[in-house]
Specification:
The chain is mainly α. Helix content is about 75%, strand content about 0%. It has a three-stranded mixed beta sheet with strand order 2-1-3.
Length: about 300
């Protein structure tokens, strides 16, 4: 893949990181290393618990195990490089490395959003059409939803990276971020990025809005159905099955919408870093806790996994 730039292609970019204060580098390294390890351990335990407990071999937990796997991949694309840069003086990344990081970051992030939409559909069918649940959410349909999520996400990433590779970078090569995200890199280009931005915004809106609207529609249907349940206990039971998923959706989409659905002129370095840390580091770390602390089946699965490990 040819990358157009007016300076040496070997110079690459320099990632400014979370903070340029030298005194904060080591504490930040310790904090994000702990968060990354918690993310890895938590999501691996979720995957092992689901695969080792036959009672968890259902569509909801099938999507949850894949969501945990994507969260591991998602954070691994970003955090290890960020940790290296926190202890490095150069903080450099090559042009090709930047595009590769950008590609996989978008691919895994978008797959996450489609998996969240798949989980919303699962809850919709379970609550609104329970008698046809086994037919609608059979293993074949679940696998097709997973494959569709991955395919759409990777095609989206490929288009974005191909568009980015056509830009020229002839001014500053300092990316004011801790990884190669679209907006900070676009800010460095000396090419006309107007057409690029239009295509990116339009295509991104279609790709990200589709699962978001699917989730929104699913929960509107769920709310209407639950409100028709006569007993308060029945309503609470139905809503409780959606609580964990809805919490993750709010955390993920809240920060994503803030970062990406704004004009480039409104880009703010500090605010965007905080919002990006939320969905790239914090949310993947919290997901295992959110899905296990209030879920009796997951608690039982984790307990059985712990007993097997100890035995």
């Amino acid at each position: 893949m040819e990358i157009k730039n007016d300076s040496s292609s070997t110079s690459g970019f320099m990632l400014l990181g979370i903070s340029s204060n030298p005194q904060l580098q080591k504490p930040l390294f310790d904090i994000f290393l702990i968060m990354y390890l918690v993310t890895l351990v938590g999501n691996v335990l979720i995957i092992l618990a689901i695969h080792s407990d036959f009672r968890l071999h259902t569509p909801m937990y099938f999507f949850l195990s894949n969501l945990s796997f994507m969260d591991i991949c998602f954070t691994t694309v970003i955090v290890p490089k960020m940790l290296v840069n926190l202890l490095s003086e150069t903080k450099s990344i090559s042009y090709v490395g930047c595009l590769i990081q950008m590609y996989f970051f978008m691919a895994f992030a978008n797959t996450d959003s489609y998996l969240l939409a798949s989980m919303a559909i699962d809850r919709l069918v379970a609550i609104c059409n329970p008698f046809h649940y086994d037919t609608v959410m059979n293993s074949r349909h679940c696998l097709l939803m997973l494959l569709g999520s991955c395919t759409i996400s990777h095609l989206h990433s490929l288009l974005r990276v191909l568009l980015m590779s056509q830009l020229s970078f002839c001014a500053s090569h300092v990316i004011k971020h801790f990884f190669c995200d679209t907006q900070p890199v676009l800010k460095l280009s000396c090419s006309d990025t107007s057409s690029n931005q239009i295509v990116v915004m339009t295509e991104t809106l279609a790709v990200i809005a589709t699962p978001f609207l699917c989730i929104l529609f699913s929960y509107l249907r769920i709310i209407i159905t639950v409100l028709r349940i006569p007993s308060a206990a029945g309503k609470w039971k139905a809503f409780s099955t959606c609580g964990s998923h809805l919490t993750v959706v709010v955390l993920f989409y809240g920060s994503v919408i803030y970062v990406y659905f704004r004009p480039l002129s409104m880009y703010s370095v500090v605010k965007d870093r905080v919002a990006t840390v939320m969905y790239t580091v914090v949310t993947p770390m919290l997901n295992p806790f959110i899905y296990s602390l209030r879920n009796k089946d997951m608690k039982m699965g984790l307990r059985k996994l712990r007993e097997r490990i100890y035995s």
